[in-house]
Amino acid sequence: MSSLFSLTAPVLISALCLYALTKKVDVYAALCEGARKGLGVISDMLPALICLFPALWLFRETVLASLLTGILSPVFESVGIPPETGLIMLLRPLSGSAALSEASALIARYGADSLIGRTAAVMIGSSETSFYVIAVYFSAAGVKNSRWAVPAALAADMACFLSGAWICRIMWG
Amino acid sequence: MATGSERTAVKLFSYILAFLFVFSTLALAAGGGNPDALFQGAEQAVSFCIGITGGICLWSAVMELMEQSGVSRALSAALQKILVRLFPIGCRHEHILSAISQNVSANLLGLGNAATPAGIRAAQGLAALGEKAADELCMLVVLNTASIQLIPSTIAAVRSSYGAAAAFDITAAVWISSAISLAVGLGTAHILKKLWR
User: Fold this and answer.
1) Is residue B143 part of a domain?
2) How many other CB atoms are there within 10 angstroms of residue A119's CB atom?
């Protein structure tokens, strides 16, 4: 299963290039154009990360962080979630960049192929910045009453974090 | 497009950031720890971004090729049959149906820049239908808060820059977790829709 997915990228790119050629698309020009747009994504992200990384790194230095983990650890462990990923779950619905900062710090510290690193990656990969999405959509539509969107979105996020942790435990634990 | 409640959401995060700085400083003053973490963090942010630039740009290039060769258009046409069942009222209007299907297909392919404008067009269309489509507007938002991306490219770029043996080997786990989260989101939506009145 894992080796199958390690070929995802090369297979996808080759198939796409062939398909695009049959559609008479200028493949090289399209790829370069996309890569240029990718630089835009990075340049949007970097200022946010330069502000968020120091805040999170400073926080992790404090006794407060270890106290918080100490209190929450038994709770998270009892439902099968690695306690180290606690901060990701708090940040994820509010800010995508902050959650990504925290996840990358965990991946750097524990290793990309560790259970904690993988759990962090799966949590990020299978969730969205719920509150931000809700704010953008309802305000763009000019609707004030968001009805049941917040509880439904939060239930989905909870399900995502729990199932992500359990799946990682089963596959790599 | 800095609308009212978006600013509120951003403002809320300003408070959280200020809270993190103030409490960390107080806790450092009281309990010790390394204050240099502040500048190490800023340095790390830059090397982190440099580390993932290659991966992000490569995927962005692939996404552009998908868009230009019509893959996302074909996907959005295929999705319409499913979406008619989720949005029976909105899908009676051609422009709403096409906006929703573009939104969902862009989300599936990870084209965030294309997903949001299409989603907003759909939300505005549903809002214009008034009270009878209010539930479907919520459904659209819930669908967008559940991540349904097929290729987890950003986090794979992060994993690869930190030396993962196979950056995409989490893909199956991400799919299962996304599917469970989507099912719970839609299920909760279905229940709350009935309880709401």
Assistant:
1) yes
2) 29
In angstroms, the CA A78 to CA B70 distance is 47
In angstroms, the CA A23 to CA B177 distance is 35
Residue B1 has pLDDT above 50, yes or no: no
Whether residue B11 is contained in a domain is answered as no
pLDDT digits (tens, 9 = 90+) for B79-119: 998 999 999 999 999 999 999 999 999 899 887 777 888 99
- Domain boundaries, position B161: 51-195
- Amino acid A5: pLDDT: 67
User: Using a CB-CB distance cutoff of 8 angstroms, which residues of chain A are in contact with residue B135?
Assistant: 147
DSSP H stretches of helix in chain B: 4-31, 37-68, 71-86, 94-109, 112-128, 134-145, 153-161, 171-195
- Choose, out of A32, A53, A130, the residue to mutate when testing the contact with B (most B CBs < 10 Å): A53
State pTM to two decimals: 0.86
| Cβ–Cβ < 8 Å for A58, B38 | yes
Does any domain span residue B96? yes
| pLDDT at residue B2 in the model | 39
Position B185 confidence tier, pLDDT thresholds 50, 70, 90? very high
Bridge partners for A127 per DSSP: B146
Using an 8 Å CB-CB cutoff, list chain A residues near B159: 107, 112, 117, 121
**Is residue B57 in a domain?**
yes
ipTM at complex level: 0.87
Q: Tell me how far CA of residue A36 lies from CA of B25, B54, B63, B111, B135, in angstroms.
A: 40, 11, 12, 15, 39
Per the structure, how many domains does chain B have? 1
**Which residues in chain A show pLDDT less than 50?**
none
CB neighbour list of residue B94: distance below 8 Å, 6 or more residues apart: none
Task: Give contacts of A49 with chain B, Cβ < 8 Å.
Answer: 45, 48-49
**Residues sharing a CB contact under 8 Å with residue A84, sequence separation 6 or more, in sequence order:** A69, A106, A110, A116, A120
A8 to chain B, minimum CA–CA distance in Å? 7
Contact call for A135 and B151, based on CB within 8 A: no
CB contact under 8 A, B123 and A127: no
Domain boundaries, chain A: 1-44, 62-172
